[in-house]
Amino acid sequence: MIIDGPVFEDLQDRVIEALKSAKISVDIAVAWININEYYDIFKMLLQNNVSIRLIFNNDVKNNRYKDKIDELRTFGLKCKAIRLNNGGFMHHKFCIVDNSLCLFGSFNWTKNAENNSIENLTITHDIRTIFEYRKEFESLMQLSDDDLQALRNPTKCESCDEPILYICVFEQDGDYYTKADVYEIYGSDNVRYVRSEYFEVFVYLNLMGIFNKYSEIEEKCNLYGQPYDKATNDLQMEFEVSNFLSQIRGSRMGFPIIHAVGIYSIEQYYKDDYNNIIKILWKEKYMSKHINDIYYL
Fold first, then answer.
1. What residues does 263 pair with on adjacent strands?
2. If exposure means fewest CB atoms within 10 Å of the residue's CB, which of 143, 168, 284, 293 is most exposed?
3. CA-based angle 243:249:254, to the nearest 5?
4. Are residues 71 and 161 in the same domain?
5. Where are the beta strands (DSSP E) in 41-157?
6. pLDDT for the residue 95
7. Per-residue pLDDT reduced to its tens digit, 256-281
8. Are residues 197 and 62 in the same domain?
9. CA distance linking residue 109 with residue 16, whole number of Å
10. pLDDT tens digit string along 7-35?
11. Do 30 and 87 belong to one domain?
């Protein structure tokens, strides 16, 4: 049994113990990794139909293991090397096993870190922590190096020096289409409509279906007196919505990047008086400080 908590000794053994427990998937984002040390366990897992995805920093240290990595690719390893053009690093050190166990800390998966450095590793089954690391991993897998740089340093308006951002707002349009309205955002509340694109209706219906599915789970549990964990239910719904909306990364509608996705809604502010609003459902990486949760129309 793998016990939660911080670890300061024999870190590689603890990592390998967690890897050996995998039955379905392993997602690893680690700045530097000695593939020779993990080749056998990776090969064994892949041959047992465990999915492995690996993200690491793109540099000479990791590229020494290109031949070994290519061999593992033939067994099914999915691999991504990240190189930031500002000289920074993909500096993460975390691993998610079967979406139910997470390891994170300062520990790079190298001999130097294991034998010569003072390092730490934390092991957890906490669903909130795992959820956040899963979101981070998926964003890194889907975004290009140029995307990451553009999100870290968004283009700014020449007159106000505020970031110029784009949000996409979905709504159903008739029986056959999802309309995606794109707005330009700059400053704290400046919203300007740019143009609309159209997708098949299932885009909007599937999004609403996620909300309805988890609402029905709550209703059924209440109706039949079954145990209901609202926090866990909300986390699962949030991840599914986030994962679904992240598909917009592949459909940018002619824009360099879409920074957030939302839906139209209304906000009651006095008795029968309402405001038309855009309710943001998903924000791209690094956008929390730039994108509001609500915009008024």
1. 170, 279
2. 293
3. 150
4. no
5. 51-57, 78-82, 93-97, 101-105, 121-124
6. 98
7. 899 999 999 998 878 788 899 999 99
8. no
9. 10
10. 999 999 999 999 999 999 999 999 999 99
11. yes
3-state secondary structure of 218: helix
Query: What is the span of the domain harbouring residue 83?
Result: 5-142
CA distance 285 to 151: 7
* 166 belongs to a structural domain: yes
Q: Look at the chain and report how many structural domains it folds into.
A: 2
DSSP string, 222-283: HHHT----HHHHHHHHHHHHHHHHGGGGG--TTSS---EEEEEEEEEEETTEEEEEEEEEEE
The β-bridge relationship of strands 165-173 and 260-270 is parallel
Domain shared by 236 and 292, yes or no: yes
- The answer on 174 and 132 residing in a single domain is no
- C-alpha span between 149 and 166 (Å, rounded): 16
Element (H, E) at 29: strand 25-30
Residue 187, pLDDT above cutoff 80: no
Quick check: is 148 in a domain? no
pLDDT at 253: 85
Sign of CA dihedral 211, 217, 218, 220: positive
pTM exceeding 0.85: yes
Per-residue pLDDT for 188 more than 80? Answer: no
Closest CA to 261 of 237, 288, 279, 238: 279
Looking at residue 54, which CATH number applies to its domain? 3.30.870.10
Which pair of tokens denotes residue 16?
A: 């390998």
Please report where in the chains the tokens 């400053």 appear, as a residue. Answer: 187
Per-residue pLDDT, 229: 85
Distance (Å, rounded) from C-alpha 179 to C-alpha 45?
43
